[in-house]
Amino acid sequence: MRRWSLVLVCVITLSLACARSANAQTEQDFAIWAALFFTAQVYADSPSPIFWLDVHARRGDVGTVHILRPGAGFAFAPWGSLWVGYAWVPSWIDATGERRDEQRVWEQLILDYTSSSGLYFQSRSRFEQRFLKGASGTAHRFRELIRLNYRPRKRVPVGIALWDEVFVGIQGATWAKQGFDQNRVFLGLAVYAFEKLFRVEVGYLNVYLSRQQDRLDHVLSVNFFVSFKGRQYTR
């Protein structure tokens, strides 16, 4: 696991270096983000069909954003799964009262690793095809999330959650950012007190957006994770 820890540290160091190099006139914003992530695996072991749904509500100084993102996939191994899905992303801009509707098609690969020492590593690679109402063309974007959770012992109800996600725009519609788009770094507590039902992660999320005028969002992030596995598969 040391190599995965080193990878995550390097990614976060590089991300923070990019943020520090931003223009001194970077806009600052405070926001609250809440999310629910639900996954259901038909069989307890793999291979198995698997289903996904995440729902988000985000409130900041600029406006409000909601996300509804269902998907379906296939767990081909205990450590890996492939997915495809759809996302609806409506947002409301306070200054104008305007509503902006974005729709996405997405595909992703998730790789997981859990060690006996209480470390959990995850890599999530996602491609998005984005469509904006009132604008022409399809915008393509790649997202890479690296997660590291640590829980010292099973009987300890609290652990540490750390992850970093990089967004890169690929050549496509002119309305979307090309190249490095944004970076998100999260550090917080993972609460396992209710783990038979769900896990809660609460903490600080730093969102750096590369724009004509760069923006830095300081986010209080609260996330609920619900996971279900069905019956044992009989071969």
Task: Please explain how this structure is put together.
It is a single chain. This protein is mainly β and 235 residues long. The mean pLDDT is 89. The radius of gyration is 18 Å and the shape is globular. It has one helix at 2-20, and strands at residues 27-43, 48-60, 63-77, 80-93, 99-114, 119-132, 139-150, 158-170, 179-191, 199-209, 215-231.
Quick overview of this protein structure:
This protein is mainly beta and 235 residues long. Helix content is 8%, strand content 66%. The chain has one domain: Beta Barrel (Porin).
The CATH architecture category equals Beta Barrel
Largest sheet: 11 strands, mixed, barrel
CATH class: Mainly Beta
The radius of gyration over CA amounts to 18 Å
User: How many DSSP E strands?
Assistant: 11
CATH topology: Porin
> pLDDT below 50 for ≥5 consecutive residues: which ranges?
none
Number of domains: 1
Beta-strand portion reads over 45%
Mean pLDDT across all amino acids: 89
* Tally of individual helices: 1
As a percent range, the share of helical residues equals under 10%
Order of helices and strands: HEEEEEEEEEEE
Large-scale geometry: globular
Decide which structural class fits the backbone: mainly beta
Taking the alpha carbons of the first and last residues, their distance comes to 33 Å
Going across the major beta sheet, what is the strand order? 1-2-3-4-5-6-7-8-9-10-11
